[in-house]
Amino acid sequence: MSEKTIIRFDNVTKHYGDDEPVLKNVSFEIEKGKFYTLLGPSGCGKTTILRLIAGFIAPTEGTIYFNGKEINHVPANERQVNTVFQDYALFPHLNVYENIAFGLRIKKVKTDEMNRRIEEALKFVNLKGYEQREISEMSGGQRQRVAIARAIVNDPEVILLDEPLSALDLKLRTEMQYELRELQQRLGKTFIFVTHDQEEALAMSDEIFVMNEGIIQQSGTPIDIYDEPINRFVADFIGESNIVSGTMIKDYLVEFAGKTFECVDGGFHLNEKVDVVIRPEDLELTTVDKGKLTVTVDTQLFRGVHYELSTYDKDGNEWLVHSTKKAQVGEQVGLDFGPEEIHIMRLNETEEEFDARLEAYGVWNNEQ
To answer: Where is the ABC transporter domain (predicted)?
Structure first.
């Protein structure tokens, strides 16, 4: 375990009764001072991980460590973590000051020290002067800031955030993404954020754990996961993707859509069946004679900064294209792309095998 590691899960499984496990033999490490996001669809196990860290539930199997010490059965109130809940869990009959002071009063913190901590917490969340404001008089964004202030006032080492932006409208949500990220950097605390919104995860995180069906499918930086998804689920869940079946002719040469193309991925077997990913923004709309693929435009939508075209090739493969150029529905057009825009995914590859292959064949990629 690294000195930077603050939380570690070793082969953690969680059952509720006789049901299928919500978490399946999950292992990972969390480092101090970083912003982590647990990303995945509803029911994938991300909130269960948060509850296990907080101490609200205990693992069925496996071990959880905090600063190198096992905490499987350490009570929630003895852990150096605080949680910001989806509904903020504020007391409506208490004002801002009393909501933030609640935990400090339970700990019997002296009044002078309590006032100092609350004033400091309110400064951090840009709510200085709101001490006597009633919760009912505050906007959704302000209530969220109160919930965050209540979480940080106890000076925890880790702050857990369970989909705290989901109730906000789009504009406020975007503003709060910036505020949360800035707050985490100013505090220097470890944030673990739960969301099903991939744009939110990409915008805010140092590292993302993509989850599905109780398993961490892939972990890494937002750029790593977006550019090098490990499988169809990750490629489809993180952003929009064109995914077609292909065959590796040899390393750095792949066949799909009836043609053979150079690519930048290696470490495959001869004639191995693979999945091929090309992002919509990496496809350039051009004329048929200049394109590597010929497609027919099925629909076209204007998205403000680009046109979104749904197209299909002669084999029936659908290709989503984001382009600044317009086309006519029913028109045949060309799609151009380079080797670096083609990402190859091995079927049923584990994250360990994936990382090893990228490391072994990364020199060729970097030199291109």
So the answer is: 7-238
Radius of gyration of the CA atoms of the chain, in A = 24
Q: What is the pTM of this model?
A: 0.89
- The Cα 219–Cα 291 span in angstroms is 35
Q: What is the pLDDT along the chain (368 residues), one digit of tens a residue?
A: 678 999 999 999 999 887 889 999 999 999 999 999 999 999 999 999 999 999 999 999 999 999 999 999 999 989 999 998 877 788 889 999 999 999 899 888 999 999 999 999 998 888 999 999 999 898 888 888 898 899 889 889 999 999 888 777 788 788 888 888 988 998 899 999 999 999 999 999 999 999 999 999 999 999 999 999 999 999 999 989 999 999 999 999 999 999 999 999 999 999 999 999 999 999 999 999 999 999 999 999 999 999 999 999 999 999 999 999 999 999 999 999 999 999 999 998 998 899 888 888 863 444 44
Distance CA 114, CA 96 (A): 14
Contact 96, 143 (CB under 8 A): no
329-351 burial by CB neighbour count: b if 16+ within 10 A, else e?
A: eeeebbbebeeebbbbbbeebeb
With CA atoms as reference, report the closest residue to 94 among 141, 147, 132: 132
- The set of long-range contacts for 200-207, using a CB threshold of 8 Å and a minimum separation of 24, is 200/37, 200/165, 200/173, 201/37, 201/39, 201/238, 202/226, 202/238, 202/239, 203/177, 204/35, 204/37, 204/177, 204/180, 205/35, 205/36, 205/37, 206/34, 206/35, 206/36, 207/34, 207/35, 207/36, 207/37
List the structure tokens of 128. Answer: 């200085």
In the chain, the domains with their CATH numbers are: 5-227 (3.40.50.300), 240-367 (2.40.50.140)
In angstroms, the CA 245 to CA 243 distance is 7
Distance in angstroms (rounded) separating the CA atoms of residues 223 and 201: 11
Sign of CA dihedral 291, 292, 298, 300: negative
